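Example S7 (structure tokens).
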């Protein structure tokens, strides 16, 4: 088991090195550093930014807002899916709204909502409306696919609602919820950053990225982007880990 884990980590590390090599090769062909920067300059800058208090303040601000928006969106999406499963009229009323939230471009939401909301709160709200339709559709799909034989058996033996949820619904929904989480975490992070780039809150990774564009600071642009990707990856892993522990 340990040998397999070591091999998988070595393989992942090799893949990362391969793409860094490709990056370096491309940077030799594109001589203009204002357009494309070598990893030999970006990687040291990453460590410089990791020791910068401004970066950590921006990261904490962005992460807290997106996390809050994700949690609220997950709760609302799950609640709406449950109501749609129980009541046909709710499902019919919500269908156009969910379709609308799923189809409208994120940038349209950002620009429209910015007229009514401060730049500090915008990433939270954007994350909420991006997460809701993803969680709603996954949870609802899971609910309608719960084995009816188990539900009928629970009624026959007069099983309590808590046990019905614990032993029938949660095991059936686990795969659907996990799929929804994997998709919605990344979407919440990307949409939240996009909201920051446009709204420019006082502190935020999106604001730092926008400033790189203003000052033509391509090295920091690459650095902040890579750090944002790493944080999004770790955030997703944390959310899935918490979900698996709760599901058990």
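Recovered sequence:
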């Amino acid at each position: 088991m340990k040998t397999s884990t070591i091999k998988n980590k070595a393989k992942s590390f090799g893949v990362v090195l391969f793409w860094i090599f490709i990056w370096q090769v491309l940077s030799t062909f594109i001589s203009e550093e204002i357009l494309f920067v070598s990893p030999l300059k970006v990687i040291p800058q990453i460590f410089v930014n990791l020791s910068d208090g401004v970066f950590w303040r921006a990261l904490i601000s962005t992460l807290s807002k997106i996390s809050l928006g994700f949690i609220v969106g997950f709760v609302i999406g799950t609640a709406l899916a449950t109501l749609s499963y129980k009541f046909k009229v709710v499902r019919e009323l919500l269908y156009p709204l969910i379709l609308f939230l799923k189809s409208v471009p994120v940038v349209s939401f950002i620009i429209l909502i910015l007229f009514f909301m401060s730049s500090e709160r915008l990433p939270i709200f954007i994350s909420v409306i991006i997460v809701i339709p993803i969680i709603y559709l996954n949870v609802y799909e899971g609910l309608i696919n719960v084995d009816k034989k188990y539900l009928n058996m629970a009624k026959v033996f007069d099983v309590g609602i808590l046990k019905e949820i614990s032993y029938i619904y949660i095991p059936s929904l686990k795969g659907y919820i996990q799929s929804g989480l994997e998709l919605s975490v990344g979407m919440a992070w990307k949409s939240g950053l996009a909201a920051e780039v446009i709204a420019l809150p006082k502190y935020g990774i999106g604001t730092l990225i926008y400033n790189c564009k203003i000052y033509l600071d391509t090295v920091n642009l690459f650095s902040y982007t890579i750090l944002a990707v790493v944080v999004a990856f770790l955030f997703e892993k944390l959310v899935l880990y918490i979900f698996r522990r709760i599901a058990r």
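Notes on this example. The two ends are 23 Å apart (CA to CA).
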